[in-house]
Design a protein that fits this description.
Helices cover 66% and strands 10% of the residues. By secondary structure, the protein is mainly alpha-helical. The protein folds into 2 domains: 2-206, Alpha-lytic protease prodomain-like (Up-down Bundle); 215-304, Alpha-Beta Plaits (2-Layer Sandwich). Strands 1-2-3 form a 3-stranded mixed β-sheet, with helices on one face. Helix 8 (258-275) links the parallel strand 2 and strand 3 (279-288). Helix 2 runs antiparallel to helix 5 and helix 4 (116-142) packs antiparallel against helix 5. The radius of gyration is 25 Å and the shape is elongated. The chain starts with a helix and ends in a 17-residue tail after the last strand.
Length: 305
């Protein structure tokens, strides 16, 4: 846990410093070069600084051990952080959308942006690629979906910067400054779309769901491989951080001893962990074969998949 905390904190600090440098350079150049697209790209990088600060704060929370109030620990803090960040990103996108829209609707006369805007955009793309690669590697090493999501967000920033570069090229080539504003408008829509996607994805974990529903087929297949284990039902799975919590009922011969039934349950746990990665805990409830089941409110059966 301590090693994981160090990785999360180090990766967060590197992200803060790197994004701050890129953001300041793009905002400064965007202002002096007169490029709304570059300025918008700089604002987007500024939101990445905020994201990294939240990531740093969250990194110190998710590694806390369970206690009386939070028996499952604090792993879901990264999901809550993602929800907060979606609002931050959405606000930045809306600000840029309004600014770009005003420039297009009111057609304010503008000079062509300075050529330096192209150079800072190229520099930004290289820097973002490096940060994204580092965040992804550290996220895999620490098993942190928060860092991996941050890496994907930075990868999207490279796409945004590429869009800025294309917009600048056509702005200079066609001698039409309004194309810079149009590029800024398109980038703002992309930022808003990213914010909505992050918001929706975080709902899954907060609602005790799973993103990859194929996990249920894997659970049923794992149980079927265990001799003596029959009719898996009332299967429930949820995610805490990047770990799965699985609960299910199985049936066994009612004449078995407690030790024999317990051994079958242990074998079910082993089989599931061999078929599914990142399983934190499994609870197996054993029932005699043929016991009458009343309709249950929660859980999945094989026949409804």
């Amino acid at each position: 846990m301590k090693n994981r905390e160090k990785i999360l904190i180090r990766a967060s600090w590197i992200s803060i410093i790197g994004n701050a440098a890129l953001s300041i350079s793009k905002i400064f150049v965007g202002i002096i070069a007169g490029s709304i697209a570059v300025l918008g790209d700089g604002i987007d990088s500024a939101t990445d600084v905020v994201i990294s600060i939240v990531t740093l704060f969250t990194a110190r929370i998710v590694t806390r051990p369970p206690n009386n109030n939070y028996a499952y620990g604090y792993e879901k803090a990264d999901t809550i952080a993602a929800k907060v960040l979606s609002f931050v990103i959405f606000f930045a996108g809306m600000q840029m959308l309004i600014s770009s829209g005003k420039n297009i609707l009111f057609a304010v006369p503008r000079d062509l942006p300075s050529i330096i805007a192209i150079y800072v955009t190229l520099f930004s793309m290289i820097g973002k690629l490096g940060l994204a690669y580092y965040q992804f590697r550290q996220g895999k090493l620490a098993g942190s979906p928060m860092l991996i999501a941050n890496a994907k967000n930075m990868r999207n920033d490279v796409i945004i910067s590429a869009g800025v570069l294309v917009g600048l090229f056509f702005t200079f080539y066609l001698d039409m400054p309004i194309l810079d504003s149009i590029t800024g408008l398109l980038i703002s829509l992309y930022i808003i779309r990213s914010a909505i996607n992050i918001f929706m994805e975080s709902n899954v974990a907060l609602m005790d769901g799973v993103k990859d529903t194929s996990i249920y087929n894997k659970i049923f297949e794992a149980v079927e491989k265990v001799p003596g284990a029959c009719n898996p039902h009332r299967v429930r799975s949820r995610q805490i951080g990047n770990m799965y919590m699985i609960v299910l009922d199985i049936e066994t011969d009612g004449e078995l001893t407690l030790n024999e039934a317990h051994e079958i349950a242990d074998n079910v746990e082993v089989s599931i962990k061999q078929n599914i990665e990142n399983v934190y805990d499994i609870v197996v409830h054993i029932e005699p074969i043929g016991k009458h089941h009343s309709e249950e409110k929660f859980g999945l059966n094989r026949d409804i998949l």
